[in-house]
Amino acid sequence: MHWNTLATALALSASGADALLRFSCSQLVVERLDPLVNPGMAPSPHLHQIVGGNAFNISMDPTTPPPSLATCTTCTFAEDFSNYWTAVLFFRAKNGSYHRVPQKPNVGFEAATGGMTIYYIPYVGNTKQTVTAFQPGFRMLVGQQGYRTKAEASKFRQLTYTCLKDPMTRSGETMDFPTAPCKAGIMTNVRFPTCWDGKNLDSPDHMSHVVYPTSGTFENGGPCPATHPVKIPQLFYEVIWDTTKFNDKALWPTTGQPFVWSQGDETGFGNHGDYVFGWKDNALQKAMDSNCADCPQLKSQTISTGNKCTRKEQVTESFDGWLEKMPGGVMAGMGNMKRKD
Ligand SMILES: *[C@@H]1O[C@H](CO)[C@@H](O)[C@H](O)[C@H]1NC(C)=O
Ligand SMILES: *[C@@H]1O[C@H](CO)[C@@H](O)[C@H](O)[C@H]1NC(C)=O
């Protein structure tokens, strides 16, 4: 299998990268939990889809990192017990009913049960920079579930959507939801900031301990500010939503595009992703230092082994079929935070 070539080709078309760790993490569980933003709250306000290690829980104590608790992971790098999650996409039909949009595997990972593609990028092109891997207990959030305008969402760089004309489409990213049907689905792209303050594993808003480069981007070697001097890997999620069975415009509301995030966002500007670091020992640092793609020095498992790792729902509620409201009673248009910052 020319995995390496494929990964490189995809990354090239995605961002101009030529060095990266790209791998599949199958679905672990879909439920209303958010141990980062709403620890201890079961159910949390909106639905998430989660991949990674099976230590995912209602609360996740940063002093007991996932590798010490997890017994399996849905990711193909078997030493990665991190958890990665996003909101869940719903379709809202003309009559106002909602239907969950299924996820589908990415190119090269067709055997996966949905889930996500995860990237950790150490550097790009000829920019020979070194990155410091995340430390045990590290976690972060990017995006703001309550944002509904481009002006708000512009605070974040590179939280985007790709309207897939075919599974290989990697151009034409937008900050809001695509406005016309996408033949091969909608891909959400979640890229995290890449500069860390070097001290705090988390912060009250789960964001202020990390920032973007002061100028340019991670890809072109943009420098980190003095307040956040430590360059961390570019963490990047791709999630593919199989919107194809909702492409008949006769079913669409007359008000516009029909997709809505589980927190009630019908604009797309509320795109957000959460991360709880959970690599075993220094496996991630090793991979970043050697700039490997298939990384034979890391322990791997097949996608089908990853598919077998699941976590029993702790919040049991049904969200299959047509619904009057999304889980938590959320409806399109709700949840606009109107933040003051
Ligand atoms: C989840 O948390 C509960 C306590 O809230 C604990 O009893 C349980 O062992 C945890 N499960 C895992 C897999 O860590
Ligand atoms: C709303 O529309 C969908 C799609 O046509 C249909 O399957 C569903 O049954 C409808 N729901 C109600 C409550 O009529």
Explained architecture:
The strands form four sheets. The chain has a five-stranded antiparallel beta sheet. A five-stranded antiparallel beta sheet has the order 2-3-4-16-8, with no helix packed on it. Strands 6-5-15 form a three-stranded antiparallel beta sheet, with no helix packed on it. Strand 5 (89-92) and strand 6 form a beta hairpin. The protein is mainly β and 341 residues long. The chain has one domain. The model is unreliable at 1-17 (pLDDT under 50). 9% of the residues lie in helices and 20% in strands. Bound molecules: 2-acetamido-2-deoxy-beta-D-glucopyranose (2 copies). One 2-acetamido-2-deoxy-beta-D-glucopyranose binds at residues 55, 57-58, 69. One 2-acetamido-2-deoxy-beta-D-glucopyranose is lined by residues 55, 57-58, 69.
